[in-house]
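Pilot study result, target chain (329 residues):
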Amino acid sequence: MNPLTWAFLFLVHQASLVFGGRLSTVVDKTEVVLKWHADYDDQTVLFSVSLSNNKFESFGIGFSDHGQYNHSDMCIFRNGTLTDYYINDAYEFEMDRSQDCVLERFTKNSFTFRRRFSTCDPHDYAFESGATQFILAGMYEKTWNFNNNMVFKTMRYELIFEGEVEMDQLERDTEVFTVLADNALVPSEETTYWCVVRRMPEHVVSRKHHAVKISPHIVKGSEHLVHHMEIYQCMTDDQEEFSGNCNSKEKPKQSKSCSHVMAAWAMGEDDIIYPPEAGFPLGGLDGRQYIMVEIHYNNPTLISGHIDQSGFDLTITPTLRQVKDIRKV
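Predicted structure:
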């Protein structure tokens, strides 16, 4: 199974402000099901992990938001215990001083644990609005090296905080702005990654807004080429606008800071909608000014001469919602 084939899931909104989700994948022929329930009142997320067999010596669930395995937070279950680790720059496991992965119960092929939205550990990932990068890793032997050939892993993007929202539940003052490929000439190559860096509209830069819905904008005729897309927040404001091949030498070096994942979409999926209480913060005097869209074109028949203008539509509102940033709830 392609680890980049993500599926955004339906989360249930309950009166007690509890949201839940589920993902399933395969790690080296072992079927893995991860379920979670986020409780706003308790400020925790309860995770349940089920494996189709017990052939792994240990199994880990990790969290991040930058698309890489290193610099990630990970909870590893081994022999009836759960340990909180950090994957450092050299892809080595470091045990956290503060153990914030709390094991609640386990069986031969499953375990359940709880984590707070935000902890005091600088190495811990803070659960917030926007996409979370889940890392699922099975280990056949104990190792301190995440790149050991006995460690099998995959990566998935999901929203921990999401709910079904009808259009009439959106604020009356919502508007939409787009970030699209600028007449991208799709190369006659099987795989191409196209990057678009854009400054947000001036009124968003100057006044904080919440993104309440992020929708794929796939132009007619490109449906068979656009395989998946991601949208990132740029963490520095010294950006230059750009639309081109992500591997081009002309891509501005400062765009490396466009690494904070806001959302991810895969072919066949629907809009990404935040629950009525939450929104993704954009702009404002203390916010960031630029965002980047990365489009993966899958062109196995090597079509040439195709022009594309796909990307994302962002529905935003200046009416800030109750949960402005999950890290600060």
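One observation from the pilot: The first strand starts at residue 18 and ends at 27. A full batch analysis is planned for the follow-on phase.
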